[in-house]
Amino acid sequence: MLYYFETMELTNVYFRKPSIFIGILAGLCLGIWSYFDFSENILLVLAFHGVSEDTRVPWEISFPKLKGYIEKLFFFGYREISPEGLENWLEGNHHHGKFFYVTFDDGLLTSMEAMKKLKTQFQIKPAIFIVTDFLGRPGYLSEEDTAELASSGFLIGLHGKTHETTLKKNQEQLCSDLKNAIARLEKIESSKIRWYAYPFGEFDQNSIKAVEESGLKYAFTIEGHEVKQEDSRLLVPRLMYLSGAELYQEPVLEDWLPPRSFRKGCLKVILSVLFFLFAIIQSFMRGSPNKKHGLYISSQ
């Protein structure tokens, strides 16, 4: 007796149907491309001033809001960079990943309290830039406070002898003031002062030369962008917190939470998934068997 079996021949639909092949290829390309967005190297240096629960001026921030920023930074994959790591970055030895570093200007007591809380709650150690003529004034650090912070592992930087803009002094005057202020801080801290923050973030060529001649190695502005490879070590940009800055189209930390590259990467992943779904749908619609053959089997 002969039995008849109907067999089917499947075509290679993935490569014989151009739309399916294009969908798969586009999805793979976008998926690979998104990897480079997610793995982009970023370094943000943040600048804060006073920390108060009753903020009265735009540059003051409440501790809960400051804490919220740090939590978001960690959530989106940022890590704190050490002062040594930041210096290496500025010298061209970039770390792989997303990093941030917190700084405080003016040498306020409220900044000191916030720094201690950040160390306790997040194990991070911000830097503080001090105006030496303000030491011991009401609301500002004393020499003893400064020494305590230094002994606790916080970096001490200089914010000037006075808080005058560097644009008002010639190079010789500014260099003399800086050297005097550095000598006072180094006597308190018993270590070399290498970092400086321009008062009001203002600088010109004379002030840059004065900073370098005084022996300072790294100087920080408030230019408002991430640290780039081409940035000078004497013009390191910082993102300064200023309430309402976004209303004037100024850069704010939220612009990097999440990072812009992260947003692009997410969009590419979504498009990649859509292309793959398109290819799958096309394969179901067009991948049905298209040839039939008969097979006879004889039974004894």
Give an overview of the whole structure.
This protein is an alpha/beta fold and 300 residues long. It has two domains: 2-34 and 264-298, no CATH class; 42-258, Glycoside hydrolase/deacetylase (TIM Barrel, Alpha-Beta Barrel), CATH 3.20.20.370. It is 41% helix and 17% strand. Strands 2, 3, 4, 5, 6 and 9 form a six-stranded parallel β-sheet that branches. The chain has a two-stranded antiparallel ribbon with strand order 1-10. The chain has a two-stranded parallel ribbon with strand order 7-8. α7 (171-189) packs across α8. The termini are close together. The model is unreliable at 2-11 and 33-38 (pLDDT under 50).
Class based on secondary structure composition and strand pairing: alpha/beta
Portion in beta strands: 15-25%
**Major sheet:** 6 strands, parallel
- The name of the CATH superfamily of the largest domain reads Glycoside hydrolase/deacetylase
Structurally, the number of domains stands at: 2
CATH topology of the largest domain: TIM Barrel
Unreliable stretches, pLDDT < 50, 5 or more residues? 2-11, 33-38
Cα(first) to Cα(last) distance is 7 Å
Q: Number of helical segments?
A: 9
CATH architecture of the largest domain: Alpha-Beta Barrel
Mean model confidence by pLDDT: 84
The percentage helix is: 40-55%
Number of strands: 10
